Structure formats: structure tokens, C-alpha cells
Amino acid sequence: MQRANLVTTEEVLVEVLTFFSTYGYQMRQRIVKLVEGIIINPNVRVIQQTHESFMDGLNLYKNRPDKGYSLTDCISMQTMRQLDIIEVLTNDKHFTQEGFIILLQEE
């Protein structure tokens, strides 16, 4: 298998679709096309949702009651650990709290 340039999870794609769910028909269609494009892009590896990934994320969520992590973030963090990924394409400071390097720095 060829190494992917980008890695995401189906949970992240669900979060994107959920965010845009109230933006009307045209925006929903654009986002669906975007997500479908991500899924078929050979340079993007989309990790499938599983009961195990849910439980791994839930475990981190449970063990960080002092943090404002979303469950999707927890699943992403656990997936990144399993795949030895340290850089994340986000500006979410929660990832730095877990030792990851965020690539979208706010100025």
C-alpha cells in the first residue's frame, strides 16, 4: 500500500458534514462533493469508524475530564497515536496539550 499524504477519520468527515448540515441545499451538496472527493482521493487515507476506535476515543474523553476535548478530537488523537502521526492540520490547541504539533498556527 502506498503511503498517504493526508490521514483523516470518518468521524472527522461526520463532524464536517454535521457542521454544514444547516447551511442549506447548495452548501450541503458542495460539502457532500468535497467529502466524496476526499474519500476517493488516493493521497488521502480515510480511517474507517469502528467500535474499537469509538471506545479508544471514549476512554481518552473519560480520562481527560479537565479538558474541553470533543469525542471526535479524542478519536483523532488516539488514531494518530496508533499510526505514529505527530503533526496535525488544525489550529486546535487541544492537540498540543496531548503532545502533537499543530500545523495551522494562529498569529
TrEMBL record:
One family from Pfam that matches here is: PIN
Gene Ontology MF term list: RNA endonuclease activity
All copies of domain PIN, residue ranges: 4-96
Q: Which CDD domains match?
A: PIN_VapC-like
GO biological process annotations for this chain's record? rRNA catabolic process
According to UniProt, the name of this protein is PIN domain protein
